[in-house]
Design brief:
globular; 61% helix; 3-stranded mixed sheet; two-stranded antiparallel sheet; mainly alpha
Amino acid sequence: MQALGGYIEYLEHDVAPRARASFRLGRERFEQKLRLDEGITLDADRLLAIAMRELRATQDEFKRAAQRLDGGDPVEAWRRAKLEHPQTGELAEAAGRQLEDLTTFIDRHAVISRPDSGLVNVAPTPEFYRWSFASMWAPGPFETKPTPAYYYLTDADPSWPAERQEEHLRHFNYPTSGPSRSTRSIPATSFTTSTSGRSSRSAQIDHVLACIFRGRWAHYCEQMMIEAGFRRQDELLKLGQLAEALIRLARFIVSIRLHVEDMSVRAGHAGVPRRGVHGRGKRAP
């Protein structure tokens, strides 16, 4: 933590005052990057139009879910929903129960094939990594034997003031912990762990590709599990899945406008809430 603090101070007080270049890629480079990195050939205007369409549709769906939940205001409904969370010291245990429920559902409905060996070990985040909220540490692509994955969650520190503990744990509320954290960990990790122990070249290639796409397709898994019928009658869970979708849609829109239009960084931060860190040191997209 001390090293991270020193690095942030260096960036803010040494590098930033001397920085003169623009962070913006510009329309041409932005579209080129998407074309070369992602194989996306749509231009920025078309992508922005799609993002705005999906944002409006998801906002409407969120309002309907909130209405079905308690008939109240969507903002107030979501505020109350975030109050439903594990207590300090119970985070890993609660996530373990969620994973068991998901595993049972996935196996019963044959959503995806899973490896026979243990899939995920849920544990508190190691001390050196407590700057993150949640992270998935999956086996590397060239492991020669089955190796367990670790799903780390950063619980509130009991020494913190009660208000800070509550604020921290609201980010692990049950509505979003189900679809966004636990749900993605099982289907995503299944692909990477299922090839462990296979020495063939094709298996290694499959494993590398799975590792590359795991973080991106995991977000798809959230909605997929809801549509597959997981906790079909749980409107709170549906509200959480939609809230996570709204965050990423807003980030998608801001990223386009930051690089292609003239949106300021300050405006971008004001428009998109910042969440914790997912994966190995990478912010959620």
